[in-house]
# Entry
Amino acid sequence: MLTFIGLGLYDERSITVEGRDALRGADRVFMEQYTSRLVGTDVDALEVEHGTEIELRDRAGVEGDPEEMLAAAEREDVAFLTAGDPMISTTHVDLRLRARDRETDTRIVHGTTAEAAASSLTGLQNYRFGPATTLPFPYAHGAEGLPASVTSTVKDNRERGLHTLVYLDIKHERGDYMTADVAADLLSEEYPDILAVAVCRAGSPDPVVAADSIASLATREFGGPLHLLVVPGDLHHIEAEALRAFADAPAELTPLE
# Structure
């Protein structure tokens, strides 16, 4: 059995009760931190909290050659851990398909996601979000300006009145975590005056939610990771009120009618 377990958003306590029980009952536990990470804890604390040894795997060990994990799952109960949810944004469908090809049973224990937290913390209605996009570090995409994947997604969503969730690049092996001010600075070349919302450290005891023009957000400091941005589309009056109340959005950018 191969059980995919989502750890939630922040620390060793963010896991669900079902996930905790599955983790503690596993014979062997693997984990990856290259798609995201729990910034409120580390592997040592997870091991102590759950009384188990955790084996870290990098991208090559998960996506390139997961033979050790798959072989172990044929013989015993194996848990595979990710931040957030194992199949939302940090998708590991390929690993599940490989297990299926070996006729190994799989199971998913879901964890809460940054996508859900962004809607909850901002007050923006989840069904009014369009497709999401990821803003990479300039050195990662190697081209001038914003990638077309970002600009086309924001443009298409705004034309339909939909909100855009912008995930910010993570390069775990370099210790690089894009922050909301850096992201806003990159986006301000194309969209200086439109409204955006920084959502920082969702799931922690002290999340920060701040709404302003993108150019203004680029001048602010939001503290440590993990961050993301939301570019709202058309606002329902309740959404506008929520952004004013919970994110200090300027009235001129959040009309109520």
